């Protein structure tokens, strides 16, 4: 199953972001952590191994759409995981997640 996860991460790199926004380093599968995965959407944490810039990306499978927001540090990854575990994530809940992060000043918009 690990190999499957790696393929998935490679897919997200190809689909969402190949390079770090900040320093332009190429992402590798080791820089990604899949926070949540369900039939409708995925939430992926990107962390640049070079400059440590972090992003949270959501990928909506039915639309093939993705969006990505920067986060201040990678400390929040546990918090986001906790949040994601509270419910099966729906599109509404992804929006809630954005609002939650925004309200806590964890996302620079
Ligand atoms: Zn970087």
Write the layout of secondary structure elements.
Elements: H1 2-15, E1 32-37, E2 41-47, E3 54-60, E4 65-71, H2 76-86, H3 91-103
Antiparallel strand pairs: 1-2, 2-3, 3-4
Instruction: Kindly name the structural category.
Output: alpha+beta
Residues in helices, as a percent range: 25-40%
Total strand segments: 4
Q: How many helices?
A: 3
Q: Work out the count of structural domains.
A: 1
Calculate the terminal CA-CA distance, rounded to whole Å: 36 Å
Strand content: 15-25%
Biggest sheet layout: 4 strands, antiparallel
Note the overall shape. Answer: globular
Question: What ligand molecules are bound, each kind once?
Answer: zinc ion
Low-confidence stretches: none
- The strand order across the widest sheet is 1-2-3-4
String of helices and strands:
HEEEEHH
Report the radius of gyration as a whole number of Å: 13 Å
Would you tell me the overall average pLDDT? 81
